Amino acid sequence: MEQKTLAKMQIEVDQYIQQFKTGYFSPLAQMARLTEEVGELAREINHYYGEKPKKDTEAIISVEEELGDVLFVTLIMANSLDIDLTKSFNQNMAKFNQRDAYRFERKDGQTGETK
After folding, report:
1. How far apart are CA 34 and CA 28, in angstroms?
2. Residue 48: what pLDDT?
3. What are 31-40's pLDDT values in tens digits?
4. What is the chain's Cα-based Rg?
5. Contact assessment for residue 54 and residue 47, using Cβ atoms and an 8 Å cutoff
6. By its UniProt entry, which InterPro entries does this protein fall under (predicted)?
7. C-alpha closest to that of 52 among 60, 63, 44
8. Per-residue pLDDT at 38
């Protein structure tokens, strides 16, 4: 199976959306959908790792599947707002690598303090 980059995923999602007359929903509707999907992810996390086990009558849905749904809706939102997620990811990683380089205890023992 071909490994897909964020850019390829955004193109594939756009091709999927473009086949429908409706096209992209409004940003507010997309935010509502993203919130719904994150809620479903939270429910699955709670079932597997929390104190609320699934009922015998509930469908088996994996955390992986729910994370995939969150990613799909995120890709849709990024496309509709003309956001390059690769660029966004790179900017965020640079920010976290600089700002949070020493925020948590590091395995290499570095503290960021100069002597």
Report:
1. 10
2. 87
3. 999 999 999 9
4. 19
5. yes
6. MazG-like_dom, MazG-related_YpjD, YpjD/YvdC
7. 44
8. 98
115, two tokens:
């002597």
What topology is assigned to 6-98 in CATH?
A: Helix Hairpins (1.10.287)
Check whether 115 has a pLDDT greater than 80. no
Placement of tokens 């509707």 in the chain: 29
Query: Is residue 15 within a helix (H) or strand (E), and if so which, with residue range?
Result: helix 6-18
- 10 Å Cβ neighbour count for 77? 19
Q: Indicate whether 102 pLDDT > 90.
A: no
The two three-digit tokens of residue 17, written as one number: 């959306």
Query: Hey, where are the domains in the chain?
Result: 6-98
Name the token pair of 30. Answer: 């997309």
